[in-house]
Amino acid sequence: MFDGLKVNSSSFTSSIKIKNYLVEELQPHLNSKRPIIFVCIGSDRSTGDSLGPLVGHKLQYFTRNNIFIYGTLDNPVHAKNLEIILNDINSTFTNPYIIAVDACLGSFKNIGNIFIQKKPLKPGLALNKVLPSVGEMSITGIVNISGNFDFMVLQNTRLQVVMNLADSISKGIYYFILNSLN
Length: 182
What we know:
Blueprint: E1 4-8, H1 14-31, E2 36-40, H2 51-59, E3 67-70, H3 82-92, E4 97-106, E5 113-117, E6 137-145, H4 150-155, H5 159-180
Parallel strand pairs: 2-3, 2-4, 4-6
Antiparallel strand pairs: 1-5, 5-6
Helix pairs in contact: 1-5, 2-5
């Protein structure tokens, strides 16, 4: 059984649903002044893998009230620096609540859907990379179908799908940040 939020990025209310879910789940951490870190994972060198850096790029100037953004187009978090970034976060912040944001491959019917789950993200699975798990919560956007040639699928993913996902996720996080200012 799925425990979390599933929303279609094309839905008019997707960003509001994301905001509402984040507020409900993260309010206790905001109240306790626990740092909340969004780690946006991916690379702009592959359209299908650019979701994380695009979300981070859209949010890079909205660090507020113990909420921080890592991973942008200028400074992406990817396979080669992920461990370094996680070590930096854990040495900079006391008991951070990390939320991983990343692209994901899935079934055809889920392309364009966003999944938020209260569990760590395992980045690099599509490309058989062994990387550390990230976060206590994960936000994934299904950018394309999973199959035999996942690397090629990521390279040939439509930018329109990735941008819809990035817009919906970043607006949801932005509204969450605004709500946290109250």
